[in-house]
Structures are given as structure tokens and as C-alpha cells.
């Protein structure tokens, strides 16, 4: 049982916030395939407060997309608190604070993971957010295990962690890499074990190197965290949630989705994206198509076809050629690792 504030989830594998990816369509598809909780892609506090197309998209929360978390990033405590209040008022069930993004342009603007080096500012941000949103709205914090591997970075991590608990946060998502590591090298799950021992009664979710259902179950078993947040492993593979649930139930790992099953989900994803983004859907969905292609028995050909699909007619042609339900396709393929790296500039 995973609990975040008043919300209880019988299944502890959830979808992380993914910059450039986890909009409403991606979250809806994940939920349809077993994901109990998902977080909107990280957004800047100033964009939440700025009227326009981006603000409308941020506040697009379908009825079947609850409970949903809204992840915020910024550098100024007052604006951070104001944005959190607006997100809670506009329907986000949980407010998540990003102190983990390792992208250089984010760090250069004193946001995301940079704040792990500035405990005073980070703690004030948490305090402003907790004070700004109603008591019934949980506040959670996303952190990496430090700016780097130095003892000073670890000391600052625990300074922020302890203060956030005193302020009244409902839980933490902890990534086992440092900010300096970005996405290079292994995620240190032993740090999650250490944190579990340090704070045995705090809701902890683990993150880092979760690319398969087996990875998710292994992190739960090895570290003792309450839940795990799947990031890159969920892009183009929403079946990871049902697979993890089967393993946690003691059932065999389901067979990989057939090409016909993949096609149905991909088309549903495209339709949801088109309803939200209009003519931009084909461009936006290209990055998803590339990742979906990894599960196809002819992955290289399908990936190349999605790369070329810039218009709706191109997208339909790919689906008709490579996902035709009446063709006798070989079995689908299971993803066993990270595949292509996440797009440069994205936070997970």
C-alpha cells in the first residue's frame, strides 16, 4: 500500500514527471494500463502564473486523470508559493517540488538540482508551498541524493530533508544519482536503503534505473521504499505498470504486447494528443513513436518510419503499414534496458 497524504494506492509503481513527455495524454494511457498515480511534466512557476496557451495546457486535467501531481520548478520562494496555490486551485491533487533536475540550463538559473546546494532557499520554498496550498493537498519533494558525492552535499541533503519533514511534507521521491551525474553511471540504490533506515516512517519513493518491471520490483524489495516512480522506462512502454503489478501479485510476467495491441494503444495516444494539441500532435508524438517502436519486431524500420512522420497523413501511413491488425506479425519485443537516451534538455 502506497500512501501520499489522504491518497492510498494499492499498487506502488507510479509514473514520474517527465519534462516534454508526461502531459495528459501520456498519463491517461498509463492509467488505462494500470498506473494508479501520475505526475505532470515539471513546469516553471512563472508559466503557471502567465496566461496563454501553455497555461491552458498545464491546467488540462481530464476527469480520468486523478489523483494527479503537479511538479513545480523555480528559484524564488514567493513566486513558487503563488504558483503552487494556483495549481492546487485548478485541480492538481498533489503539489510536487522539483529539487532534482540536473539539466545545465536549469542549474544555471538556480533551479532544480541547484537548490540542493542552497538549503536556506530550498527550505523556504518548501515552507512557502506548504503554507500556500490547502492542508488537504499533500506536498511532496523530488530530490537527488546530493549535488555531488562530497560529504558537504550529503549534509545539505539531510538538512533539507529534515526541515521539509518539520514543515509537513507528505513524502519524497529520491533519485539515486547526484545532480553532477545527470543520467550517467548507475543510480545508487544503497542510498535509498540508508534513507529508509534513517526515516522508517516517512513515505519514500525511489527513482533511477527503472527500465523494466523487474527493475521496479527489485528496487522495492532491495531498498524498502514505499513506491517507485518510473520515468524513462515508461516512455513508449505503458505496459510496464501492468507487468510490475503482475510480478508483485506473484503472477508470471505477461507476454509482451502484440503488434496489434501496440497499434491500438499508440492510436489512442495519438487521438488524445490530437485532441489536446491539434495540428502539433504529429510533431509531438514523433518522440513517443520512436520509443514505442522499440517493442516492435521490426524496430529499426518502424523507428525510421516514425522519424519521417511529420504530418497526420504520415502518421496514419506508419500505422497502416507497421501496425496493421490483420497482418501475421511476429511476437512483440520486451524492452530490457534504457534504449535511446532521453532527449537532451529533459528532466526526469
List keywords for this structure.
14 helices, globular, alpha/beta, 43% helix, 348 residues, TIM Barrel, 8-stranded parallel β-sheet, 10 strands, two-stranded antiparallel ribbon
Would you kindly provide a written description of the structure presented here, covering whatever features stand out?
This protein has 348 residues and is α/β, with parallel strands linked by helices. It has 2 domains: 247 residues, TIM Barrel; 64 residues. It is built from 14 helices and 10 strands. The strands form 2 sheets. It has an 8-stranded parallel sheet. Helix 8 links the parallel strand 8 and strand 9. Helix 9 crosses helix 10. The longest helix has 19 residues. The two termini are 24 Å apart. About 2% of the residues have low confidence.
List the helices and strands and how they pair.
Elements: E1 2-4, E2 7-9, E3 13-15, H1 24-32, E4 38-44, H2 45-48, H3 53-58, E5 68-73, H4 77-89, E6 94-99, H5 104-108, H6 119-132, E7 139-144, H7 151-167, E8 171-175, H8 189-198, E9 204-207, H9 213-223, E10 227-230, H10 240-248, H11 259-277, H12 281-292, H13 299-308, H14 312-322
Parallel strand pairs: 3-10, 4-5, 5-6, 6-7, 7-8, 8-9, 9-10
Antiparallel strand pairs: 1-2
